[in-house]
Design brief:
Number of helices: 10
Number of strands: 10
Number of domains: 2
CATH superfamily of the largest domain: P-loop containing nucleotide triphosphate hydrolases
CATH topology of the largest domain: Rossmann fold
Bound molecules: adenosine-5'-triphosphate
CATH architecture of the largest domain: 3-Layer(aba) Sandwich
Keywords: Amino-acid transport, ATP-binding, Nucleotide-binding, Transport
Radius of gyration: 17 Å
Family: Belongs to the ABC transporter superfamily.
GO molecular function: ATP binding; ATP hydrolysis activity; branched-chain amino acid transmembrane transporter activity
Largest sheet: 6 strands, mixed
Helix content: 25-40%
CATH class of the largest domain: Alpha Beta
InterPro entries: AAA+_ATPase, ABC_branched_ATPase_LivF/BraG, ABC_transporter-like_ATP-bd, ABC_transporter-like_CS, BCAA_Transport_ATP-bd_LivF, P-loop_NTPase
Strand order of the largest sheet: 6-7-8-3-9-10
Pfam family, one: ABC_tran
Strand content: 25-35%
Structural class: alpha/beta
Length: about 230
């Protein structure tokens, strides 16, 4: 479904991604794990079109998207939940969700998807008119995920969904990610919580300073000595 082939990405003079290749098949959860600054978020931002690779290719369902505008990429069916959520604090929960559907015009289908989001996230249903900025961290993460789902993506990019959340809530969020995947959405997940990420993923890649150092099934990586030592606490 998605193929990232040997991309090089720079921030000015900083060479952030040094020949990264990742492939995601339809129906999978693929996770990128690695320490701070390894290039995980940069990889997601490049797929969603916010950054352009200097060299290399990104294809989504056979179409080259590396040079495409971010909005066109959303229209193809890729939606990103950014790190830190970036919800609109001064708008209500409902308004945030409506904004997630801005590229669509199929009103009755939008309404259906809104109902599905409220079923998946009952906490949001109870808070439809609450200002998003007053939600708790976990609720804001749910809202950011709900908003991304409102574009009806086929590929969902999730950047550190567990960030800043208490352990119980992390469990809840990961359970929901698994359910979203089981209902047909392919997922590329960036996480520092390697334990949780490997527990739900099919495939995984380890990033270190802009390079992929290990790749395999999630099970292979969770059994790997190097991964256990560096990312799973021994
Ligand atoms: P984290 O988990 O801390 O977000 P990450 O693996 O997602 O880490 P990136 O955010 O992708 O890492 O950063 C990769 C490298 O690119 C880092 O060295 C970072 O300092 C650099 N970088 C990221 N954003 C910028 C920017 N806007 N300008 C300059 N350098 C940047």
């Amino acid at each position: 479904m998605l193929t990232i082939d040997n991309i090089n990405v720079y921030y000015g003079a900083i060479h952030a991604l040094k020949g990264i290749s990742v492939s995601v098949a339809e129906g999978e959860i693929v996770t990128l794990i690695g320490a701070n600054g390894a290039g995980k978020s940069t990889t997601l931002r490049t797929v969603s079109g916010l950054l352009k690779p200097k060299t290399g290719q990104i294809t989504f369902e056979g179409q080259d998207i590396a040079a495409m505008a971010a909005q066109s990429i959303v229209k193809l069916g890729i939606s990103q939940v950014p790190e830190g959520r970036r919800i609109f604090a001064n708008m209500s929960v409902l308004e945030n969700l409506e904004l997630g559907a801005y590229i669509r015009s199929d009103k009755s289908e939008i309404k259906k998807d809104m109902d599905t989001v409220f079923e998946r996230f009952p906490r949001l249903a109870e808070r439809k008119s609450q200002l998003a900025g007053t939600l708790s961290g976990g609720e804001q993460q749910m809202l950011a995920m709900g908003r991304a789902l409102m574009s009806r993506p086929r590929l969902l990019l999730l950047d550190e969904p567990s960030m800043g959340l208490a352990p119980l809530l992390v469990k809840e969020i990961f359970k929901i990610i698994k359910e979203i995947n089981e209902s047909g959405t392919t997922i590329l997940l960036v996480e520092q919580n390697a334990n949780m990420a490997l527990s739900i993923a099919h495939k995984a890649y380890v990033l270190e300073t802009g390079r992929i150092t290990l790749a395999g099934t999630a099970q292979e990586l969770s059994e790997s000595e190097a991964v256990r030592k560096a990312y799973l606490g021994g």
